[in-house]
Amino acid sequence: MSKEVNKNVENGQNTWHQITLENTDRRSALKTITAGLIAGVGIVSTSCAVFSEDQEKETSQLSWDEFFKKNYKIMSDDERIQTVQRLESLYEKKTGNTINISHQGPLDDVLFGYVFNISKCQGYMDCVNACVEENNQDRDSEMKYISIHQIEKGHGFNFEKAEDEFTNEVPLKNHFYIGTQCFHCENPPCVSVCPTEATWKEKDGIVVVDYDWCIGCRYCSASCPYDGRRFNWGQPHVPEEEVNKNQHYLGNRLRKKGVMEKCTFCIQRARVGQNPSCVDACPTGARKFGNLLDPKSEIRWILENKKVFRLKEDLGTEPKFWYYMD
Amino acid sequence: MKVFIQFFKDSLEEVTSGSKVYHLWMAFLTLIMLIGAFCYYIQVDQGLIVTGMSDSVSWGLYISNFTFLVGIAAAAVMLVLPAYIFKDIDFKQAVLIGEGLAVAALVMCLAFVVVDVGGPANLWHVIPGIGIMNFPDSMLSWDIIVLNGYLFINITIPLYILINVYQNKEPKKSIYLPGVFISVFWAVSIHMVTAFLYQGLQARPFWNTALLGPRFLASAFAAGPALIILILTIINKFTLLKVAEKTINKIAIIVAVAAQINIIMLISELFKEFYFPTHHSISAHYLFFGLEGKTALVPWIWTAITLNVIATVMLTIHKIRTHKKFLLIACAILFIGIWIEKGFGLIVPGFIPGQWGKITEYTPSFIEVGVTLGIWAMGAFIFTVLAKTGIGVELGKLRYQK
Amino acid sequence: MIFALVSCTSNQEKEHKYHGNFDKIKALEKDSIEYAVKSTDLIENMPLISVETNEVSFFIPERKSKIKAFKCSECHTKSIPELKSKNLTGKKAHDSIKLNHATIEELTCNSCHPSQNLDHLKSNLNAKIDFNQSYKVCAQCHSSEYKDWLGGAHGKRVKGWVNPRISNTCVDCHNPHSPKFESRFPAKLKSRKMEEIR
Q: What angle do CA B155, B156, B159 make, to 5 degrees?
């Protein structure tokens, strides 16, 4: 009796053994063939390039290393230096020009904040242009991180009545202007929803994206209440002579198609004491930037002395971008 | 091991032989798949810019189909539970067809996700261990886990049953029954998790309602079994396997009840949006009535609702539901109505208007449609292959010869 | 088991959750912070003037060296009323300056420039104000903008957000004789389409 039971159990185990080893064989054969064909075609076409013999080998090696690297967030300092060097080499081989990609980490005791004076904004859009140039944004799709909204006075902050693409002389009579961009929330929904942790909040409060880690699922863009994120639907192009060569790995280095990007408070500038380009470009001083942890900073004075507010306050995202009026 | 190789060989022979109609069907599907593959090649080469999506509407046809098919996959297995409870139908048959459909639908889901992402070569980033998976914060990570787990269950259970019947052995209930039960409850979870993907986003008030998850389940359990009824009818007509009339009737009751619940939930949603419209109702207003002259989705949603209501009424009336022809018509229009509702009626309006009030309409491009049809053809192909093999084993045609 | 493996590989830092930004700011703020960069590193030897009140202290750019024809007295020996009279011989300079600032009942040349001393500015009650501290003149009427400017809500930083604070003074942005910003067209977006049009 027990022998029979044992044999049955053994049979059962054998069958299970077979199943667990072979479960993808037969059924997924066709799926894998088709998927393999498609993937193979895709990979071959995206990695094809024309180089000279020697260069080709070196470039292939660099590209190979780049493809298999880790998420920047968990890289050690050495690994970060290596990836930055690889990227600089690849660029030089491709274009003959040198760039400098920084991996500067967050400064101590710094939490960046931003304030926008609605009374002062006149709709000049100098900020939009400065940002595009500073951050090497795609010229083909007219990507711009900053949106300036023109709203007729009387409607209040009713964005359904806002015009985003205006070409009239500014300021238009009876209209006011309000700018939006990534607000670098303290509770960023984009960071929670990213399936691979390709976007995260740095210690100094800047929400960043590792462009090489992003898989392009666009979940973050669905979750952002403020239209802060931009996707590279096609291959981004920046004319060679307009490329800003002072770059940061998490900031304005050149991106590729199929990845997300966004305003980074000009991380390549902010971490060396400079203002983001939008702040410097604004002729009316409508934009202010600084360290929230310095009680004597301008931004703290504004937050404590002017009537400041944030947009969509009820969503619980705690943006670090406030608005005020004179 | 030998058994498996022989099984593979036998089933290969089985799926490559059949009537003229069968061959025409498979050739047709292959043609569509090749067109889809070519469209996908163009998309990989140039980027997602060849689709109709934009920063404003960043998910479109692909994710719509993904959402709908997760429901089909979930519901396909739901017919297993009643089959077990009612105890009067050949349980094994229901399991095989249902889980075969679930596998095909799941493969389609995974395919839609792969074609939707901007960097398919980087998808390994999501695998825990070699990459990073943002669990438990990201609902997408939950979805990846539950969908793949469900696929695993739905491959192993039927495989176990088939491989035993193939060898003229009785598959042990003690082995497959627990798996079947797990898969039934897992089916509910895959669709709730997929619903939670959208439900949790405070940025999109059209989705951010408590009813989204239950609504997904209701519409899935209406559309999935409706498809199964259509498939079983085809199997009755074109193969030697005969599915009992009462099986189909019992499934029809499930479809009817689910369709009724779906309508009730729709009424509840309409009430919430339109009784006292707030700023949060603006997406619903765009969907049902258009906004500022932009009315692209209005004909779609009203068609969907009309089809759903007619189908529900047809299925509720006993005399109509039991009439074979009307049942098939009701199932077909219900399937189409829910497909429209889940896709253009849910995913796209969630993005319109955008976060700052901008209205950007969405139309899928030809490439998108091509890839979508290719994936549907692939799903039908997979299901046909699985069904033919399963039926072959069931009928005794496929047997292990030593 | 899957869940355990997966949550182990998740790398979200479990940071302390604050109730809102102000709680976090109050918890982490530091009274004196040393930055690796100073704003003076960013301005390349621009001469600065300091502004000190009870609450704030910061710098503004030095002004006199930037006025082309300072000191006024090197050329002008006559007083303003005499310069304005029509009987004067010799070339008339500054006649392109149109005073477009408030009305004639509120402001005239004499409101800010002392008649007899063209190298300084003056307050309402004839106190001498140096050209480098011209903001004191503006502050007389524009007291709310002045308060805002002292705090940092009005005006622009010269460069950088790090210490020490270097802010533009009133006349760095506003022409004191015609302070209103004129209407203009928005900046043309840099894009391929725009390049092709050009």
A: 85
d(CA C118, CA C192): 52
Distance CA B74, CA B66 (A): 12
Tens of pLDDT along A159-212? 989 999 888 898 999 999 999 999 999 999 999 999 999 999 999 999 999 999
The predicted pLDDT at position A58 comes to 87
The shortest CB-CB distance from A186 to any of C24, C39, C186 is to C24
The HSE-up count of residue B45 (CA atoms within 13 Å, CB side) is 13
Scanning A68-188, the segments in alpha helix (DSSP H) are: 77-95, 126-134
User: What whole-number distance in Å separates Cα of residue C137 and Cα of residue C114?
Assistant: 12
Nearest to C112 by CA among C147, C86, C140, C92: C140
Q: Which residue of C has its CA nearest to B128?
A: C6
How close is the nearest chain B Cα to the Cα of C2, in Å? 8
Query: What one-letter code names the amino acid at C177?
Result: H
The Cα–Cα gap between A92 and A85 comes to 11
B219 neighbors B338 (Cβ within 8 angstroms):
yes
The share of chain B scoring above pLDDT 90, in percent, equals 65
Q: Which residues of C touch A280 (CB under 8 A)?
A: 159
Query: Taking a C-beta distance cutoff of 8 angstroms, is the pair A304, A96 a contact?
Result: no
Among chain B residues, CA nearest to C3 = B135
Q: Could you give the CA distance from residue A277 to residue C176 in angstroms, rounded to a whole number?
A: 27
Residue contacts between A and C (CB atoms, under 8 Å) = 151
Contact A294 C30 (CB under 8 A): yes
The predicted complex's ipTM stands at 0.92
Q: Cβ–Cβ of C12/B134 closer than 8 Å?
A: yes
Q: Does C27 touch chain A (CB under 8 A)?
A: no
- Chain-chain contact of C6 with B128 (C-beta, under 8 angstroms): yes
For B238-292, the pLDDT digits (tens) are 888 888 888 888 889 989 999 999 999 999 999 999 999 888 899 999 999 999 8
Contacts of B229 (CB under 8 A, 6+ apart): B248, B251, B252, B255, B327, B328, B331
Least CA distance to B145: which residue of chain A? Answer: A195
- Local structure of residue A181 (DSSP, 8 states): -
- In whole angstroms, give the CA distance from residue B217 to residue B207: 15
**pTM of this structure:** 0.88
